[in-house]
Amino acid sequence: MSQDGAGINLETSLGYLLKEASSALRAAMEEVLRPLGMSVTHYSCLELLAQRPGLSNSELARGAFVTRQTMNVLLQTLEREGHVTRPAEARVGKVLPTRLTPRGRRSLEKATVAVRSVEDRMLAGMTETERSGAFRILRSMIHSLRDGNDSA
Amino acid sequence: MSQDGAGINLETSLGYLLKEASSALRAAMEEVLRPLGMSVTHYSCLELLAQRPGLSNSELARGAFVTRQTMNVLLQTLEREGHVTRPAEARVGKVLPTRLTPRGRRSLEKATVAVRSVEDRMLAGMTETERSGAFRILRSMIHSLRDGNDSA
DNA sequence: CACTCTATGTCAGAGTACTGACATGAGTCA
DNA sequence: TGACTCATGTCAGTACTCTGACATAGAGTG
Q1: What is the pLDDT along chain B (152 residues), one digit of tens a residue?
Q2: What is the pLDDT of residue A139?
Q3: b/e per residue, A12-48, with b = 16+ CB within 10 A?
Q4: Does B90 lie at the interface with A, CB-CB under 8 angstroms?
Q5: Quick check: is B101 in a domain?
């Protein structure tokens, strides 16, 4: 079914499957984070800050895969709510290093439990070998997409 | 680095890597589709219709991983621009089967070429064995995320 | 020093996708 | 037949993310 030469067969397209998997993951995460009043980007930002305190707005944006404008708005909200702190003025350049407050850390802890349950569920039924295989393949895809631009 | 027991280590999280890969794919697709004035969802809709003519609004929404409200708005735009056609009234129930117009098909053809180049680039450096492995693993992740709700 | 380039933080506006809500049609069951 | 459930199409409002634009700070170069 579906003429082969014409379009991209969605049934056998790895890109389509990747989108489907990502969509399912996002939906599952939103589901468990919603009761905590937290979005995926929201959570990503806090988790990044827990592991690498002092990250700047732009660095957080890259880590959460959004633009720095989007992250800027989110940080303003988080700061207003008392989850993170930023110095009023930059010590060097324009970079404002961000840090979690105790309140932000508590908020993150609950979210981490929720997200970990999703991650565990996703990994269920996969062997260790398959997991490392998935890692290698995803990294390969990312690498090929990133710098395959200029070489055509 | 980064206390192990506390959070989810983003460096070794398959979920994070999946998000990164999906983000890279989306960015690459947007880049090649933008010159054609087409978004990823836009393209997904046309490709779905090419392979399965007569799909309803809700079916298209599920296939493109958006809500049916979002797809409805998109279909209204596509219909206004003459890329798709829908009957004014449903022959059975409320379902309005959608079909590509010749114009929509021409538009899709150009997009397909662009998207195929991205997909090819993504698959570059992967063996056939790795490709089928990636398929199996992604399907496993999707399956686990979908119906792992109630059993937990 | 002056010039250029790059990166950053930020504001404003536009676009996209979502949730909520309503009416309608089909199927099931008593 | 009537009540109930489910899926669909659609409208309206909201939330999130993006692009565009600007000013500023540091590095490199003449």
Answers
A1: 434 456 778 888 999 999 999 999 999 999 999 999 999 999 999 999 999 999 999 999 999 999 999 999 999 999 999 999 999 887 888 899 999 999 999 999 999 999 999 999 999 889 999 999 999 999 999 999 986 543 33
A2: 93
A3: ebbbbbbbbbbbbbbebbeebbeeeebebbbbbbbbb
A4: no
A5: yes
Range of the domain at A99: 19-122
State how far the Cα of A95 lies from the Cα of B60, in Å rounded to an integer. Answer: 44
Which residues have a Cβ under 8 Å from the Cβ of B2 and sit 6 or more positions away?
A50, A51, A52, B9, B11
Q: Is residue A78 part of a domain?
A: yes
In a domain, B112, yes or no: yes
Q: Is residue B130 a part of any domain in this protein?
A: yes
Q: How far apart are CA B56 and CA B99, in angstroms?
A: 9
Token pair of B101 as six digits: 């117009």
* CATH code, domain with B54: 1.10.10.10
Distance between CA atoms of residues A53 and A64, nearest Å: 15
pLDDT tens for A78-113 read 999 999 999 988 888 889 999 999 999 999 999 999
Residue nearest to nucleotide D12 (CA to C1'): B69
CA–CA separation, B94 and B110 (whole Å): 33
Tally of structural domains, chain B: 1
ipTM of the complex: 0.91
Q: Which of residues 104-133 of B touch A (CB under 8 A)?
A: 108-109, 112, 115-116, 118-119, 121-126, 130-131, 133
